[in-house]
Design the sequence.
């Protein structure tokens, strides 16, 4: 009802408290380590609904130690990027897809509904204020991290009566700068039917660190997540996975696993499918892909390329997979690889060439 | 190494900052809503290891907005209780089991190792300082919530270089005060093989709220979590599950699902198994239990009682299960029920009768 969950109205209510001392902007840094001068915070409580959105100097949050996010991971996030075009104008890449996914995550996490376009309006105002942080060079950009946490100040697993939506922005730097090596072991599962793998909830990530460290101990950079008895290929690290191959019927195909509840509906994933379908040069399919099918294709030289996609990494060529004590060497990337073509095309769109 | 993760030493280092204004202690309140006057905090960082443990006035935490716990649920907790015995002395119930489980959760979450007995020492000091909060009456007690969160102040899914271990304490009140009604639907899964269901990590809980609300919409209090094609009975809400029945071979049996990675190793669960095995009056088994087996037993009047167990709820009789549009009425609880006998015996141990 409007009484318990009025959508916040940005245009009318947004309050801005500018920082009195701006930070110096460092040169290229690691992803996610240097934040801009301001942040957006909007509080919600069950009695009064959404409170006045506030843009204020970047700084620590003050949270009750029983806060639902800290105990029960009632939390979710989004990731999107803003680019400075060749025409000097700033552009967000498909932000409505992020707002839509954020709404779905909020519903799944039992956090309150919010008005997507009003939140996007607040984010645009934040970007405007910190616009000098958006890099001027090439495909460099600023990474935007909307975060939504339950802040109920009492214990017990229950729907929170308080919540905080906040947005921080950081230098994107380079996420992965070389081709990726993956490690796969069916003893770890990232997501499962009836779970939350298709939402960007915090709980999907913390449980993956242990496997990621094991991948590292084998000299690999990320985990390739398998699923089920037939070892379906699902995601790689925090990326969606694509195969560019000649399929079992001899047709050229770009394939990625379908959104069956265990796969994160990536914005870059969707954009790649949209692009490739527009090209109409080969089959583009959302279908199950097993490790057995990949191995057969590799053996029969039907695999052209395997790559991952995500907002942070964009498009990332996969060079090898260590699985069942075998190190599978995948076809190399070159300028004719599909991932190179997609990366170039995405950049052209993002900087509006 | 000792350099990167020296265990903190409580006896030598603990610093106490007493609150200058103590709260009034309210009468019976809801579980987890009223906290004591002090809390324990211990910081860790990868360079210097564990810092000085601090007991300080209960209050908000100041956290970086990129904090790993808030984005990626790099977090875990424990729950244990302190009782005031008939002899007026305070007793923790099997706290080493909680310390042991907390260590395992920390390993799985990629949070640093800690010295279990030193942490327990710090917790005992905290209890001593807030000892007036431990109720004087019967089975009432104070609930202790150790919490351990990653506080890395940068984005990117990675092992945190900073962490905070803290302990808060609250009035326990009554968690469930009547017999429970459960709702089961295989479309939701709590935990799965290769996941984190056997650890007390935050991500196991936030994802369950949605199903809990759906249970509520059917007039039920908690979810009965099923697993797999054969609808195995795994947990109920945040409780372990027990069947007291005449099994398929005609033998009286107390049964609970085995610790196969999808089941939380509850301290109350273990204590019930220990007690029942000591009695040696009927079979005590950790075995798979399916919804089909439960329905058969119910139809053939072989079910004596179904109950849940947990630190918060202790032992809780289950009155009904709504499943596949059928409302299964389970045998009533009376003073001869196993759950009543176990509850009485546990209380006797906890208050040292």
Sequence:
């Amino acid at each position: 009802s409007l009484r318990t969950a009025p959508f916040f109205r940005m245009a009318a209510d947004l309050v801005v408290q500018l920082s009195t001392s701006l930070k110096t902007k460092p040169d290229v840094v690691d992803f996610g380590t240097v934040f801009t001068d301001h942040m957006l915070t909007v509080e919600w409580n069950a009695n009064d609904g959404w409170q006045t959105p506030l843009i204020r100097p970047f700084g620590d949050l003050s949270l009750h130690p029983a806060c639902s996010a800290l105990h029960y991971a009632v939390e979710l996030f989004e990731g999107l990027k803003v680019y400075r075009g060749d025409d000097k104008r700033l552009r967000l890449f498909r932000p409505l897809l992020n707002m839509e996914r954020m709404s779905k995550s909020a519903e799944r996490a039992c956090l309150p509904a919010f008005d997507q376009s009003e939140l996007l309006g607040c984010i645009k105002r934040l970007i405007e204020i910190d616009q000098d942080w958006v890099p001027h060079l090439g495909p460099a950009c600023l990474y935007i991290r909307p975060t939504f946490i339950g802040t109920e100040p009492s214990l017990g697993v229950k729907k929170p009566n308080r919540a905080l939506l906040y947005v921080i922005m950081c230098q994107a730097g380079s996420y992965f700068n070389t081709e990726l090596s993956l490690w796969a072991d069916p003893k770890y599962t990232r997501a499962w039917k009836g779970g939350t793998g298709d939402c960007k909830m915090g709980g999907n990530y913390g449980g993956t660190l242990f496997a990621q460290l094991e991948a590292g101990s084998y000299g690999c950079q990320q985990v390739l997540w398998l699923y089920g008895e037939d070892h379906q290929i699902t995601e790689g690290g925090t990326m969606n996975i694509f195969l560019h191959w000649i399929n079992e019927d001899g047709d050229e195909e770009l394939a990625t696993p379908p959104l069956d509840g265990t796969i994160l509906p990536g914005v870059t994933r969707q954009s790649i499918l949209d692009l490739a379908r527009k090209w109409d040069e080969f089959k583009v399919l959302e279908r199950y892909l097993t490790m057995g099918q990949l191995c057969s294709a590799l053996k029969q030289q039907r695999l052209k390329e395997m790559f991952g996609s995500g907002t942070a990494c964009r498009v990332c060529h996969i060079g090898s997979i260590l699985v069942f004590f075998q190190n599978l060497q995948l076809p190399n990337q070159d300028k004719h690889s599909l991932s190179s073509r997609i990366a170039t095309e995405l950049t052209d769109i993002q900087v509006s060439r």
Residues 1-6 of chain A have pLDDT under 50 and may be disordered.
